[in-house]
Every structure is written in structure tokens, then in C-alpha cells.
Design goal:
- The protein is of the alpha+beta class and 132 residues long.
- The protein contains 3 helices and 6 strands.
- The strands form 2 sheets. It has a 3-stranded antiparallel β-sheet.
């Protein structure tokens, strides 16, 4: 009787050593879904590029999230930034929605500056889940 008990215990111990790690690393469906979720910071991106005509900057936002988002881009355009007398600044912004796997480019143009020099500063962007 005692040898049967020892053999049973040894078999269970061996099974735990061999099969234990396989069960310990197994994720549930809930864990798998949680690990697939990404933050908006990971699935939205921003880029800027000078326009070929040198009349502004293109500001692009891309949404690779699985949900639609509402985004905003803002900037300040300063005309004649080197001139104390002619310098003028104007803040501008654009708010828009992006579906999943979509992108939008906003042009920050400098036509209001005419032939004067210009500077684009305080460029900011943000995105949040689109409200239902």
C-alpha cells in the first residue's frame, strides 16, 4: 500500500514538473485581448513637412487605431519675425475626425505674410477617442 502511495505521489510530482510550465504560460482570451489593445499614443502619429512652394508647412495626422478618433492641430504663424515694427502673430487650429486607418493633412499656409519672412511655432497636436 505504501509503495502504491509513493508511486502515485512520484507520478503526480513528475506530471507537475513536466506539464506545469505549459499551463503556467497559457493566457486566457481576456488576457490576449488586453495585450492587443494599444494606447492612442501608439496608434496615432504626427508629421510635418515644408511645402514645396515654400509657402507653409503640411501637418499630417495618421490614425492606425481600431477606433475612430477626434484630433486637433494648432500652431502660431508669425510674419516678419525679425522686424520689431512689422512683426505680427496669429494662432490657428483645426479640429477633425479620423476613421480607423485614415490620415489627414492640414496646410499651415503663410500667404497672409506676403513677401515678409515667417516662422511657424507652437505646433501642437492631440487625439482622443471619438465620442459616440
Amino acid at each position: 500500500m505504501r509503495s502504491l502511495l509513493v508511486r502515485s505521489f512520484a507520478t503526480l510530482a513528475l506530471l507537475a514538473v513536466v506539464a506545469g510550465p505549459a499551463f503556467a504560460g497559457k493566457k486566457t482570451t481576456k488576457d490576449a485581448k488586453a495585450s492587443k489593445k494599444r494606447s492612442l499614443a501608439e496608434c496615432t502619429s504626427f508629421g510635418q513637412q515644408d511645402r514645396e512652394a515654400e509657402d507653409g508647412v503640411d501637418l499630417a495626422v495618421t490614425n492606425s487605431c481600431s477606433v475612430p478618433v477626434t484630433c486637433s492641430v494648432s500652431w502660431t504663424l508669425t510674419c516678419a519675425p525679425e522686424s520689431k515694427k512689422r512683426r505680427s502673430s496669429k494662432a490657428d487650429s483645426h479640429v477633425f475626425s479620423l476613421d480607423s486607418a485614415a490620415a489627414l493633412t492640414v496646410s499651415a499656409t503663410t500667404e497672409r505674410c506676403g513677401d515678409a519672412g515667417w516662422a511657424l511655432t507652437d505646433i501642437q497636436w492631440s487625439c482622443a477617442p471619438k465620442a459616440d
